[in-house]
Design a protein that fits this description.
Layout: H1 2-8, H2 11-28, H3 35-55, H4 62-86, H5 111-119, H6 131-161, H7 167-179, H8 186-191, H9 195-204
């Protein structure tokens, strides 16, 4: 992961081992927290991180910028940015991607750079966004619906592929591809960030030989 970060500068490469270790401890716990507690964790962690930055007099708030801004605020902001940029112009229609043989792409920049230049005013900004933003850029609101439907199909595929496996193993395999949904389009997540590979891995994983545990994906 350090080598990947040194080449790409992708912060996820450095933070993913921490995320995987945290989820591992969570699924190994004797009692898992309820869903409501998991939902409250995001604002609670945000407040704690901002407090740490304030007390340490970090300028301009390194932890806040890295975790709160990057992982929580930016994905929502980018959704609005994509809607604003592509609302009154021609949609991309995946002409820069898998549908390039069928459609002509009307722009000189891919959608992330187009949004970076138009919405953020910086041509060098690569504003990669989540499945909703990417869906709108390609086919408008129908694209958002289509991206959600594909995501639902992926969740069903994960459920089927993980049947009979320990829940903790399934969670760890799917964790990072699932997090990529917040920063990438649905097709990019499936093909580039390993979501389809994770489904195949779960389907091929042996169902016997695991440590005895009452927890398994039903």
């Amino acid at each position: 992961q350090v080598i990947v970060y040194s080449v790409s500068g992708n912060k996820t490469a450095v933070l993913s081992p921490i995320a995987i270790a945290g989820v591992y401890l969570l699924v190994r716990a004797a009692r898992r927290p309820p869903a409501a507690a998991c939902l409250l964790a995001a604002p609670a962690v945000s407040v704690a991180i901002m407090l740490i930055d304030h007390l340490s007099r970090s300028v301009p708030g390194d932890l806040t910028s890295l975790i709160v801004r990057r992982f929580l605020v930016t994905p929502g902001l980018l959704t609005a940015g994509y809607v604003q940029v592509f609302d009154d112009i021609d949609k991309a229609r995946l002409a820069h991607s898998i549908l390039s043989p069928f459609f002509d792409y009307p722009y000189t920049k891919d959608p992330p750079f187009l949004v970076g230049a138009t919405f953020f005013g910086d041509p060098s900004t690569h504003a990669n966004a989540n499945i909703l933003a990417d869906g709108f850029a390609n086919f408008g609101y129908l694209g958002m619906v289509a991206a959600c439907l594909v995501c639902v199909a992926l969740m069903w595929a994960v459920d089927d592929a993980a049947e009979g496996l320990p829940l903790g193993f399934a969670c760890l395999v799917v964790l990072m591809p699932a997090l990529a949904l917040a920063d990438s389009g649905i097709l990019t997540t499936m093909l580039t960030h390993g979501f389809l590979a994770a489904v195949v891995l779960l389907a091929l994983a042996p169902r016997t030989g695991w440590p005895i545990s009452p927890r398994a994906v039903p």
